[in-house]
Design a protein that fits this description.
The protein has 2 domains: 4-31 and 282-413, Lyase, Ornithine Decarboxylase, Chain A, domain 1, CATH 2.40.37.10; 34-280, Alanine racemase (TIM Barrel), CATH 3.20.20.10. The protein has 12 helices and 21 strands. 28% of the residues lie in helices and 25% in strands. By secondary structure, it is of the alpha/beta class. Bound molecules: ligand LLP. Ligand LLP is lined by residues 58, 60-61, 79, 102, 162, 199, 202-203, 237-240, 275-279, 314, 318, 375. Belongs to the Orn/Lys/Arg decarboxylase class-II family. LysA subfamily. Keywords: Amino-acid biosynthesis, Decarboxylase, Lyase, Lysine biosynthesis, Pyridoxal phosphate.
């Protein structure tokens, strides 16, 4: 259930008409539903009832501190990939012992901040990174808890750009070097081995690649234990896909994913760690936008929105599908139309969809793009000097702005003329 549905002829976010938000905040704007975040988190967490598990929400999917605080209240941990995300997670009240730090290029400063905070585990992606982490930990008179992110060489993920678990991807320690990497880590006085980590891709719509990765890692865990290493945790990353409303395969529900994980890891004697991002945030948010113009082209009609690729880049970057609906329910006799839905940016790539059949719309009408809660606002830019659009969080019949729309003056404030141009 999306909590963004028609009621009395118009779309509401929970109990707030989207028209009210558009009027109060202006468009374009991201609108999130607290109830949906809570529901997705609980459904996911409950599918692991009965086993030791940490759900470390992948902050990159939607990192607004109000979103993180909503999840923190439910007991969520966090998967962070930068010092900035670490700061957000801590600020939102996620305890350090529930924070895991992933990413292929951690800096010394980020390692220091994470060690000072006392995070649960560093997911280390290379031996050079391990050596630097060892140095930093020793300088600070401490030990860094680590898991190696291993690359199991399985194919998964909805698009080439978001597939990460194949050997040609930059991620993780090569499968064939994993045991040697653990042997080396065991010799380092600033390092404490605690687990194994994988993340094979994103928008995965079938369980088979997860099963393949879990089976491979299960074997690795046995071999590592035989070699004398202590493996307490198994982090299987994120990646479970969500329905986007197109005709692609529908991903399995979290309950099936949970059952599969429980079955396959039953005898492993590990604490499981999960890093879901999209599954929690994707359908918890929409992008609310106004139709600026309907333009008749030579052979097609363009619906020109006030939102653009800088606000939601997924269609341009991954050919992603987002459901588009008018905020006012079309009457039963409403005319149908076929549109290329585009933004105002000066690039042909600024196209949300081509040849989409939908109710005919007029300038000034509101539309939403569904499934924009994950990898929407976080991937936005100010290209064409378009201010980052605001984010609004709804809870029941209340809503608040959780990130303001900057003014153009605020954007320009950080730029400087060099002396010779003054
Ligand atoms: N853990 C790690 C180490 C990751 O790299 C990612 C996502 C996740 C967890 C969360 O994966 P999820 O559960 O959200 O699939 N911008 C792209 C998605 C990039 C995913 C990057 N890594 C998109 O808009 O589709």
């Amino acid at each position: 259930m999306r909590h963004f549905d028609y009621k009395d002829g118009e779309i509401y976010a929970e109990n707030v008409p989207l028209r009210t938000i558009a009027k109060a905040v202006g468009t374009p704007v991201y609108v999130y539903s607290t109830a949906t975040f809570e529901r997705h988190y609980s459904v996911f967490a409950e599918s692991f009832k009965g086993i030791e598990a940490l759900v470390a929400y992948s902050v990159k999917a939607n990192s607004n501190i109000a979103v993180l605080a909503t999840l923190a209240k439910l007991g969520a941990g966090a998967d962070v990939v930068s010092g900035g995300e670490l700061a957000r997670a801590l600020m939102a009240g996620i305890p350090a012992h529930k924070i895991v730090f992933s990413g292929v290029g951690k800096t010394r400063a980020e390692m220091r901040d994470a060690l000072r905070a006392g995070i649960r585990v560093f997911n280390v992606e290379s031996e050079p990174e391990l050596n630097v982490l060892n140095d930093v930990a020793l300088e600070m008179g401490t030990k860094a808890p680590i898991a190696f992110r291993v690359n199991p060489d399985v194919t998964a993920g909805g698009h080439d750009k978001i597939s990460t678990g194949k050997k040609e991807n930059k991620f993780g320690i090569a499968w064939s070097s994993a045991e040697a990497a653990y042997a080396h880590a065991a010799t380092l006085p600033g390092i404490e081995i605690v687990g194994v980590d994988v993340h094979i891709g994103s928008q995965i719509d079938d369980l088979a690649p997860f099963e393949a990765a879990i089976a491979k890692v299960g074997g690795l865990i046995s071999r590592l234990r035989q070699a004398g290493h202590t493996i307490k945790s198994f982090d299987i990353g994120g990646g479970l896909g969500i329905p986007y409303g197109d005709n692609n395969k529908t991903p399995p529900p979290p309950s099936e994913y949970g059952q599969m994980v429980k079955n396959l890891t039953r005898d492993m004697d590990v604490e499981m760690i999960f890093e879901p991002g999209r599954m929690i945030a994707g359908n918890s948010g929409v992008l609310l936008s106004e139709v600026l113009y309907v333009k008749k082209g030579e052979d097609r009609d363009f619906l020109i929105l006030d939102a653009a690729m800088n606000d939601l880049i997924r269609p341009a970057l991954y050919d992603a599908y987002h459901d588009i609906e008018p905020v006012l329910a079309p009457g039963s006799d409403a005319a149908e139309a076929t549109y290329d839905v585009v933004g105002p940016i000066c690039e042909s790539g600024d196209t949300f969809t081509k040849g989409r059949d939908m109710p005919a719309l007029k300038s000034g009408e509101l539309v939403i793009m569904h499934s924009a809660g994950a990898y929407g606002a976080v991937q936005a830019s100010q290209y064409n000097t378009r201010p980052l659009i605001p984010e609004v969080l709804v809870k029941g019949d209340k809503f608040e702005i959780i990130r303001e729309r900057p003014t153009v003056a605020e954007i320009l404030k950080s730029e400087r003329l060099p002396d010779w141009l003054k």
